Amino acid sequence: MNPLRDPQDRRLPRIPEPCALVIFGVTGDLARKKLLPGIYDLANRGLLPPGFVVLGFARRDWTDGDFEALAHDSAKDYARTPWREEVWARLAGNIKFVGGSFDDDAAFDRLSTCLDDLRHSHGIHGNAAFYFSIPPSAFPQVLKQLARTGMADNERCGGWRRVVVEKPFGYDLPSAKALNDLVDDVFTRDDVFRIDHYLGKETVQNIMALRFANNLFEPLWNSKYVDSAQITMAEDVGIGTRAGFYDATGAARDVVQNHLLQLLALVTMEEPTSFDAAEIRAEKLKVLRAISLPTDVAAGTVRGQYLRGWVAGQRAVGYLEEPNVPEDSTTETYVAIRLGIQNRRWAGVPFYLRAGKRLPRRVTEVAVMFKTAPHLPFNRTDVEMLSSNQLVIRVQPDEGVVLKFGAKVPGTTMEVRDIAMDFQYGEAFTEASPEAYERLVLDVLIGDRTLFPDAAEVEQSWRVIDPLEEAWQGVRPESYRAGEWGPRAADEMLAREGRSWRRA
Q1: 3-state class (DSSP) for residue 493
Q2: Which member of 122, 184, 268, 483 has the lowest number of beta carbons within 10 Å of its beta carbon?
Q3: Does residue 259 have an active-site annotation?
Q4: Predicted TM-score of the model (pTM)
């Protein structure tokens, strides 16, 4: 190693040790559209070791060649980086498949034997990560099989063994605790990676860079200068084929409990002592514990359900008309919540979170609204077009940061109106941002848990959502038409406090 190069230098390429990635549910949409293309993209960027193996497990009577054909087509169709046959040729020789169901002991015995054989044939030294691209209901059975065969035992395998768990992390606090206990019984806590793919997005990670690498924002990042903040996750699509899952879940459990509360924690947490996974998680957990719910849930929250309407020029059916949705369903497809944070920095600042389907367009953003200047030495007419300063972090699409402030309009009169300085990732950097799963799979293989919520964060997030879900029981959601920005009651919630939603 070059003694002049710092091994902690994060600009250096991070390449895992030789290892295997075992994907359960490898024929599902997540594996085909995200995981397998992400693996190809990592290989295309030179970030995978020669001794890297993709091992698929599914209920199929397939050979290695059958799985390789699926992986090839998936990667070619959905990869972010240009297709290069020579890159795929190197990967293709390291693709294996084991067929069987989750209750098939013989299939898991074959999987264990295959991993043992790979120690010698591909030099993986016992290192393997198990990716659960399967419904949460199947987790207990797979975990028991991994425990039975000893595949989760680091000492027995002579290397590291990790598990990757997709959201949802439970349905409520008791189920989340039960899931965490089950996973922790089989794997050590340091080997459990709970994926929230939003944390893998470059713009989300840029929140920490924006706050802690610049001295510009920190003096203003508190209740003295910040009036409020809005976190929006809007989708223009409906529920698609997810009726079975979505109708039992709803918008609050589906995205607020994880994506939006994680964004809130990153925006409001204190500066960690170092860019270390444990330090960052500790600061996020402090914020989650400090969250206060509305004293009047009816006044501080709004639930909605979309009706027929038009989105982007296309006719959309109402939620109750979607296939397999019960005609009397009271599941919300939109939710808006007013939260507070009870600490010195943020006391008195409202944080408005909203998420919904069949809204006018797809956008996820964090908007920090600053207080107006205490004194404006202008005539009233000079500043009629001036609003408050805003810092908007766009997570998707058009990733970037917008700073909105007042400036004089050219001319002979004094007229001040809003203008925006707009930073876009696609224009500022020559390298395209990696997909979230691409980054997170690499972190799993390296063992970097910085972008993965731990059990305490998950459980604390449910402590925020569960009381709201209990208060909403038996209450029918408000209606809004597809293509609108949610129910009118959501606008009224902010209007009562003299505020309005930012039209994202």
Answers
A1: helix
A2: 184
A3: yes
A4: 0.90
